[in-house]
Amino acid sequence: MQIWLSPRASPTIDVVGDTIAIAEPRPAEVEDSFESHRRRTNVQALRVGALVTAVIQVPCLWFEWQFLQSDFWLLQCLRLLWLLPTLLVRFSVSADSVLLQKHIDAFIFCIFSACGVFICYVTSLHHGQTSPYFFLLIIMITGVSFVTLWPIKTALLFDVTIYAAFLGLVATQNVGSAPEDFVGYHLFLVGMLATITTFQQLRLRLEKQAFRDRLEAKSANARLEEAFGQLTQAARPDEVGVFREHQSRASNSAHVDRVTRGCNVKYACARSGS
User: Fold this and answer.
1) What does the alpha-carbon distance between residue 21 and residue 62 come to, in Å, rounded to a whole number?
2) What's the number of domains the chain is made of?
3) pLDDT tier for residue 84 given thresholds of 50, 70 and 90
4) What is the pLDDT of residue 235?
5) Residue 154's domain spans which residues?
6) DSSP alpha helices (H): ranges in 68-178?
7) Nearest CA to 93 among 56, 44, 54?
């Protein structure tokens, strides 16, 4: 009886004569499984990112109270527009929610795009591109790209949205500043977006390959166990007897080998003692 892995797309086990063919999983099934895994990972990323974002708002509140008092309450109302839904989803929706997993990419994109637009607006109120909020924008971009696994289209759309908000709300105020500063801030932001997106896509590719390897190993092991069970049930009595005889011989051979090694050790000890 021979067992071999078939490259066909069918996940069934076929018995043909003395051969059991165990098919590999379909590529579409692997992609669907990884997509579910990626979305669950993003749900966990959202749960962690929501807490980190909420903590970061504490020093921002102090800064705005000290240096932007005239716009303080307006900024708090704008902040609640994106922070409140984030915290509500974080604490009221289960991580196993099918609806949340289905729309997790769109939710993270909308929430943190709104966060980026808000940061750009505060930056425009406080010295433009030289404001500390510019670096807060960089921190937000880095955090979102580091913890999420996004397809390339979503990642690029997020980058374009953030850069458009910076260009429209912040950069227009600094057109008359020193050209090297104006160009430098833009190059820094664009370079950060490009670098972070590149590493995010590399991490996504590595994660997909590792997931595929784990899935194929588990699938092959499960199908082998099922094949052996099917073999035991479908085998003829004489084949089962032959199998048990070979198993008994192997066991006896191993026992004899252990006894022989033991005798050799005792004989060697006896000679060394004499």
Assistant:
1) 67
2) 1
3) very high
4) 56
5) 27-214
6) 72-92, 98-102, 104-125, 132-147, 152-169
7) 44
